[in-house]
Amino acid sequence: MPNGKGNPPKRRRSLVWEHMKIDEPSIDMATCIHCSNPLTAKSIGGTSHLIRHITKCLKRKGLTEELDQFLTKTKGTNYSRE
């Protein structure tokens, strides 16, 4: 779908999007699929805050296996289980 400037929208490549649902019609917000917490999802904002949220959310929910898989996939980043 074009973004109004004739260009297709950017593909979201971060693994964090497996844990978020983009809110329609506003693509500036996303909702965590684990806790339903709304978070900003502006393209200029980056995904660091979303990754931090998912890491804390999965720990809080006791989903350690899913957290381990997420952290393994995001290996090489500055995010830890602390």
Summarize the structure.
By secondary structure, this protein is an alpha+beta fold. The mean pLDDT is 78.
Please write the string of helix (H) and strand (E) elements. EEEHH
| Number of distinct helices | 2
Distance from N terminus to C terminus (CA atoms, Å) equals 39 Å
What overall form do the CA principal axes indicate?
globular
Keywords:
82 residues; alpha+beta
SSE topology sketch:
Elements: E1 20-22, E2 29-32, E3 38-40, H1 48-60, H2 64-73
Antiparallel strand pairs: 1-2, 2-3
Helix pairs in contact: 1-2
Organism: Oryza brachyantha (malo sina)
Keywords: Metal-binding, Zinc, Zinc-finger
Protein name: BED-type domain-containing protein
Can you offer a commentary on this structure?
- With about 80 residues, this protein is α+β, with helices and mostly antiparallel strands.
- It has a domain at about 15-70.
- About 30% of the residues lie in helices and about 10% in strands.
- The protein contains 2 helices and 3 strands.
- The chain has helices spanning about 50-60, 65-75, and strands spanning about 20, 30, 40.
- β2 and β3 form a beta hairpin.
- α1 packs antiparallel against α2.
